[in-house]
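New to this. Look over this protein:
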Amino acid sequence: MGKESKYVSKQPDENGIIHWTDEENAIWHDLVERQLKCIPGKACDEYMKGLELLDLPKDRLPQLHEINAVLERETGWQVAAVPALIPFDEFFRLLANKQFPVATFIRTREEFDYLQEPDIFHEIFGHCPLLTNPAFAHFTHQYGKLGYAASPKERVYLARLYWFTVEFGLMKTAQGLRIYGGGILSSPAETEYAVNSDKPERKPLKALDALRTPYRIDIIQPIYYTIESVDELYEISDMDIMALVQEAMELGLFEPKFPPKPKTDVA
């Protein structure tokens, strides 16, 4: 993750407490309240149960030890404070050790609706509820172990599987389409679009297909992959994913379903 962030993560004090400003707490409150109005009937049941277990405060940012107490009890996971952007090596190392990286900064009002880099709202509100689920937690742990041992080229392929599951995954349930990807669940626009729009393509998840599908981080997604239940992630994580990565490399990528990113002049 070579680019630099304009955001700086806050350092916990000697007691592990992060001191947030009133404005940062107000931004958290507004983000949570807005998204809580969007997700009923759209987020999957496992996510909603996890949200209930975490019992996130609305009037202030949660402290990491509060999240850790719940995750440790439910699945043996923890969150770990990290700088705004971390190298892939560190990202995979943390996941392999059942630690979910959380950048300890929150977006500004100017980037309230969309932020390219993951902030604490995205990580905690978007991802942590599902880390209380054993199947999702197992998938994320296995993914981290594979990624930590992988070559840089293999990691680029693995990143696509993560993108189309953990970040932008959908679930087909008896009640209809539901969201489990944290990238969707932390975005009101994409929450609505992913479930209710007829514009995106939605296909049943095949790990090999996901590994071969290009994506862009700065647009609403043109394609989503669906699973039937969260247990499907458990099954995928026990496949020989690295053999699929090799196969994906040999077959090559699918044609992108989006225009190329506009080039910017960088000095």
About this structure: The chain has a mean pLDDT of 95. Strands lie at 78-82, 99-103, 170-173, 176-179, 201-204, 223-227. Residues 22-38 form the longest helix (17 residues).
